[in-house]
Amino acid sequence: MVNPATTIFRQIVLLLLVSLLLMFTAACGGSSKSEAPRPAAQPVAKTAAPAANGGAGKPMTELRKLIETAQLTLETKDLPATEKQVMDRLNNRKGIVSSSNITLDGNGRRNGNYTLRVPAGQLQPFLQELAELPNVIVRQRSLAVQDVTEEYIDINARLENMQRQEKRLREILATATTVEDILKVEKELAAVRTQIESLTGRLKALTGKIELSTVQLRISEVVVMTETNFWGKLKGILRDSWVAAGDVVLYIIATIIVLSPLALLVALLWWVWQRRQKAKQTGRINIPPPEPPK
Known about the structure:
Blueprint: H1 4-35, H2 37-55, H3 57-62, E1 66-76, H4 79-92, E2 96-104, E3 110-119, H5 123-131, E4 136-147, H6 149-175, H7 179-211, E5 212-221, H8 230-286
């Protein structure tokens, strides 16, 4: 006969063994679950870092839209020769002349003003070429860069949106059956077409400024080249002051010549008025006094 106490003891031992087995299984499963993603997470981090540092940075640099403008003032003794040298270098870079104007000042010296367009990315080398022209001195030079990337992307996105809207309206117009529906769709379509033409014009103008950089060039013809050292600058200032003083004298002489007829007329009127005043005074003196009554 089995002792009841022994049976209960065996049952308790069996329950403890089952409990230990379940706890060991749960611990192994939890550790495997927590450690499993670690090897997979490391490659993701390694591949994401180069994409953020190198892969994403390069396209953003390539997509930048820049408008470059420059101003350059040159001084030369021979304007036609310098102009030819500038045009030769402009043609070598496939540039164009947007406008040109040559004027003659009061001293007989010519001044040329030009608006030049050069392909994007060639502006600074082109300016350096002009600065290194023979028998030429750079009097002024400036460069400005405007980033219009956001404006370009915005206009392009709006244009694509309007084009999709136009396509949808044309599909609706093709399925419209009533006159009222056709008129409504055509009205909306006309408004969309107006916006598309406006955005296309703005995008074209912006693209032109991006693809062709602008150079405002001024070439001044002088008799004596301005030197860049101290004594040369002092000599140039004295020469300009002497020329300015000569211009003032010329203006005074010209003013006297212009106003001389008016001055003669005023003097003649003054002389006539004085003569009449003297004649009146003489007449008053020659009048005899009235005789006393007898």
